[in-house]
């Protein structure tokens, strides 16, 4: 059973990682003189949109999302509304955190919010796909020994790697190297994306390596 779940996770993560590659390559076909640095906002939203669509599709097809207690249309609409609301609040939260860490409040506000959108896509959206709009479940997963499945563990790893990657990406910005990837928020978005890809790769490997030590409580 462990091997089946880990293989399913590895396949899902490979598809999600491929979506980032496609979002990096495909804009060059439609946008003249496209480059990750020169057209960074285009690249950022292509990656965010691609990851969002593929995440939702993959987790829906795999049936990873928690089952709903009701099947009424009003309940599904309410659940969708709460998910959208949580995503928007997550964007505002990340935007506030980034500003508190030193980003300009008004100058480059669009770029800062775009970074927040990307971070929300790499972290909060996966929480919504795996756990649903259930804040208590989110708190449980990110608390000590709170994971109840391999997907919870993968969520911990990918979220941590994404946030740490964005944080590490901020370090080169003050240096006077005058490189195009040092323009705000290029290095942070590249760091977050690299961290996310690292998490996608590391999660199944780490879970497979520690599968004998992992014990999950019954839901």
Structure description:
This protein is mainly alpha-helical. It has one domain (1-65, 73-218). Helices cover 69% and strands 0% of the residues. The chain has nine helices and no strands. The protein has helices at 2-25, 27-30, 40-62, 73-100, 109-122, 124-131, 135-141, 150-169, 186-209. Helix 4 (73-100) crosses helix 5 (109-122). The model has no long low-confidence stretch (mean pLDDT 89).
Q: Which shape, going by the Cα principal axes?
A: globular
Q: Can you summarize the main beta sheet?
A: none
- Uncertain stretches of 5 or more adjacent residues: none
Q: N-to-C terminal Cα separation, in Å?
A: 17 Å
Give the structural class: mainly alpha
SS elements, strand count: 0
Please state the CA-atom Rg, rounded to the nearest Å.
18 Å
State the oligomer. Answer: single chain
* Portion in strands: under 5%
Mean pLDDT across the residues is 89
Number of domains: 1
Counting H and I runs of at least 4 residues, what is the number of helices?
9
Helix content: 55-70%
Taken in chain order, the helices and strands follow as HHHHHHHHH
Name the descriptors.
219 residues, mainly alpha, globular
How do you describe this structure in short?
It is a multi-pass membrane protein. This protein has helices spanning 2-25, 27-30, 40-62, 73-100, 109-122, 124-131, 135-141, 150-169, 186-209.
Map the helices and strands.
Elements: H1 2-25, H2 27-30, H3 40-62, H4 73-100, H5 109-122, H6 124-131, H7 135-141, H8 150-169, H9 186-209
Pathway: Glycolipid biosynthesis; glycosylphosphatidylinositol-anchor biosynthesis
Subcellular location: Endoplasmic reticulum membrane
Organism: Carassius auratus (Goldfish)
């Amino acid at each position: 059973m462990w091997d089946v779940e880990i293989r399913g996770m590895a396949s899902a993560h490979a598809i999600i990682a491929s979506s980032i590659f496609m979002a990096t390559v495909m804009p060059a076909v439609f946008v003249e003189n496209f480059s990750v640095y020169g057209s960074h906002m285009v690249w950022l939203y292509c990656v965010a949109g691609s990851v969002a669509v593929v995440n939702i599709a993959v987790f829906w097809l795999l049936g990873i999302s928690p089952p709903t207690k009701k099947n009424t249309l009003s309940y599904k609409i309410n659940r969708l509304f709460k998910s959208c609301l949580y995503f928007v609040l997550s964007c505002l939260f990340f935007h506030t955190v980034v500003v508190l860490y030193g980003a300009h409040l008004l100058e480059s506000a669009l770029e800062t919010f775009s970074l927040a959108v990307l971070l929300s896509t790499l972290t909060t959206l996966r929480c919504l796909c795996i756990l649903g709009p259930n804040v208590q479940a989110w708190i449980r997963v990110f608390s000590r020994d709170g994971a109840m499945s391999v997907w919870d563990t993968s969520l911990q790893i990918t979220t941590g790697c994404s946030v740490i990657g964005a944080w590490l990406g901020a370090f080169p910005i003050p240096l006077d190297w005058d490189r195009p990837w040092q323009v705000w928020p290029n290095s942070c978005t590249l760091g977050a994306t690299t961290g996310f890809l690292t998490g996608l790769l590391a999660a199944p490997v780490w879970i497979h390596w520690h599968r004998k030590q992992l014990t999950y409580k019954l839901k």
